[in-house]
Amino acid sequence: MVKTLGLWVACLTGVAMVGAVGQDGKGDKREGQGDKIEVRQLNLTGVRLNPREAERSRVDMAVVITDAEGLADAFPDENSQQAIAAQVDFRKEKLLFFRWAGSGGDRIRPQVQRANGNVRVVFKYQRGLTHDLHGHHYLFAVPRGVRWEVEQEKQ
Questions:
Q1: In angstroms, rounded to a whole number, what is the distance separating the alpha carbons of residues 51 and 73?
Q2: Of 98, 114, 108, which is closest to residue 152 (Cα–Cα)?
Q3: Bridge partners of 95?
Q4: Count of CB atoms situated within 10 Å of the CB of 34
Q5: What is the pLDDT of residues 30-68, one digit of tens each?
Q6: Which of its termini does the chain have fewer beta carbons within 10 Å around, N or C?
Q7: Which H or E run contains 89?
Q8: How far are the Cα atoms of 3, 13, 57, 108, 131 from residue 62, in angstroms, in the given order?
Q9: What is the DSSP letter of 2?
Q10: Which pTM does this prediction carry?
Q11: Three-class SS state of 144
């Protein structure tokens, strides 16, 4: 009944899959393991971002950053690395860096979902309606063992 209801609700809301499921090789996070699942959007104020990288990427292709070395690859500026590292604990969290070029109205928001004892984070992507081109940069901290994916919301 619950599975059927979930499929029916998904069909009615018009949610369609856009990207691949993210995996970190450690399997699914199960309910009851650890604390409450928290997804945090990190503050990028003062962080040097390369707008050209957004033009060459897609919303469903997040850069997964699991340590200081990965952080240095994604953010070459040392001041930017320090600003971000102060907001994350790589022992418990990984970072997902979403960057793409699209409408100025594009948005992405995380949603924690639980089903059959498994927990995953679904990033809901909503396309903007304006015909302008803007670079988008979002950095989220998620627990290391949690699976993630991107879904496009139907408008």
A1: 16
A2: 108
A3: 65, 141
A4: 14
A5: 444 455 889 999 999 999 987 777 778 899 999 999 999
A6: N
A7: none
A8: 29, 24, 9, 12, 23
A9: H
A10: 0.76
A11: coil
How distant is the alpha carbon of residue 145 from its chain centre? 14
Helix (H, G, I), strand (E, B) or coil at 42: coil
The domain segmentation of the chain, as residue ranges, is 2-152
- Phi then psi for residue 99, to 5 deg, are -150, 130
Q: Residue type at 149?
A: E
Reduce the DSSP state of residue 123 to 3 states and report it.
strand
Residue 51 CB coordination number (10 Å): 12
Q: Is 65 exposed, middle or buried (0-12, 13-18, 19+ CB in 10 A)?
A: buried
State the Cα–Cα distance between residues 59 and 95, nearest whole angstrom: 15
DSSP state of 31: T
